[in-house]
Amino acid sequence: QVRLAESGGGLVQAGGSLRLSCAASGRTFSSYAMAWFRQAPGNEREFVAVINRSGSNTYYADSVKGRFTISRDNAKNTVYLQMNSLKPEDTAVYYCAATGASTSGSRAYYPNLYDYWGQGTQVTVSS
Q1: 21-46 confidence digits (pLDDT tens)
Q2: Which of the residues in the chain have pLDDT under 50?
Q3: Is 33 within 8 Å of 103 (Cβ atoms)?
């Protein structure tokens, strides 16, 4: 069982930056690949980024590539999402998720791959 808790959301102007954190409970954090998803009102949950168990491999959605960076600190049981050059279209609730399955290829895009989810944190980017 893994419990996830996101923090760091808020209101920021376009072009600004935010850093989201996701703290995980349990002693097996390093056994899980971790991802960030987001969901805007009226939209489906959308893949943002994923990082493998060791932190050696990452993958991003095209919409955030070059602006967002996912990282993890296994000693602190925490995964991060550094978001730079934010745009109004980045406005959404951001969720972290954990999976014990392989996240190679396009498998990572799909929410049903993930076993555990946080409650989400709101990010609002004003124009």
Answers
A1: 999 997 789 999 999 999 999 999 99
A2: none
A3: yes
Query: In the structure encoding, which two tokens stand for residue 2, read together?
Result: 């893994």
Nearest to 111 by CA among 19, 46, 31, 26: 46
Backbone φ and ψ of 106, nearest 5°: -80, -5
DSSP-derived pairing of the beta strands 78-83 and 68-73: antiparallel
Contacts 24+ apart (CB under 8 A), 55-63: 59/103, 59/108, 63/89
Looking at residue 43, its pLDDT comes to: 95
- Measured in degrees and rounded to the nearest 5, phi and psi for residue 64 equal -120, -5
Structural tokens at position 60: 């991003």
CA distance 117 to 98: 7
